[in-house]
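Internal tracking record. Fields below are filled automatically when a chain is submitted to the structure queue. Please do not edit lines marked as system-generated. If the sequence contains nonstandard residues, flag them in the REMARKS field before resubmitting.
Queue: standard
Priority: normal
Entity type: single polypeptide chain
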Amino acid sequence: MRADDIETIDAIWRDHGAEDDWFVVEKGMRHGDFFLALSLMDAFRRHHVAHRRLVCLASQEKTANIARMFPAVDVAPVVPRLNQISMADVHAWNSRGGRDPFGPGRLILMHPSNYAVGGYAPGRIAAAGVCELDLFRGALRLPMSAAAAPPPAPSGPQPEAEAIVRGAGLQPGRSVILFPYAQSFHRDWTAHFERLAVTLVQSGLSVFTSVAGREAPIPGTRPVSIPFERLRPVVDLAGYAVVVRSGIADMIFNAGARVIVLYASQAIYNTWNSGQLGLDSNAIELYPRPDLEEPHLFSATLKALLLGGDYFAYPRCQPMGVNAFFKLANAHERLAGGEPVQLNTRTDFVRLGAVTAFPGLALGRGWDLETWGCWSVGSRAELLIPVRAVAEKAWLDIDALAAISPGHPSITITVTEGGRELHRQVFSLETGRARPMLVPLTGVSPAMDVIRLVIHIDSPASPHEQSRGTNPDHRPIGLGIRAARLKTAES
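SYSTEM-GENERATED OUTPUT FOLLOWS
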């Protein structure tokens, strides 16, 4: 290690901190990787930093602004001199005198590739079924159970985001922002996005392409340039986003808008989806099925955007907004009075993130709305009930039906709350496809002011499977609900 390299690193260390400070360094990292590493900074502070100062050294203002989104980071100075030193020099400087290279006063490289032997490629990691966030945990000497924590949602007025929206000509709540470019997982999405843009414009939406540098907007769309630190509020104001799996997806997984994330393959989905990474997400995540490929992915994307209950597609859906959401979600008097709550697209409802609120009752994750009611999609779905609506002894009476057929003759539904089984019911061709479910709510232990019922479906099957290919619906459905009402001991 040359003397001038030592002096450069010494100067960086002297100029931006003290011996007791912890330093993490953005070097050799793409923006999405940097964001993922920063999502572990809450855990990093708890396990290592404690009361001391956590300094994140960034090589440019763009990445410094990403670091400043995370409250666990105390300060994020821009240090262009980081580009003058190699990662090998940082390792050598950290280990001078035989000391442990990990600790306060060192420049800790966050990306696991800095510790790899024989090369590092995200595609190979995905193919091996390894979760990259676990590699970040290893690089930061965190337990594998350390939770990732995205930055908090911006609160209050967002004048910078509003200025971007006005300047680009976005219509709040009626605009789709396309993010068709990714650095790590390459696939030509142009044809998919061109078809999507045409259909969305015909549906009355304004369509934009997020661009940076020399990137060109998708034909038929308008360009918009969004700084990383403004992505979440701009997307929330727009209302909709379709993003190919990239670092951008990490930054808007938990946006309040409807976000669709597209994966280039199932292998990439298996190791990079939000659940695998442990990231809080409201997004709908899709990948191309090998047997259906592009037509299926296009129709699935379109359905996720247009047929999920938006107010331009279903007049009974209220414009997205926190006030409208709570107005309906807190209408517990209707449920408490024993009135049935119709769970369909003909009833007033509003969506906020992954929750669809009807008067007095809400659907969590795992449901698709229809004109007659809703279907569970997948093996798990959630019902949310306001505690104030529930008497001391009460039951939830569900007008239910099951997705069964001669090719799929039975299905078992289990309802739990807080891990405790409340009800189990088998639907079969012998007992009938449509039957009520009476779920006891006595003795539940709600978190906050909501009872969260988890519906477990043991063997969901798509209409396509049940009809041996004649039905084009590929959703793995199980339990259908037309309406739900509360019953008490008195009633």
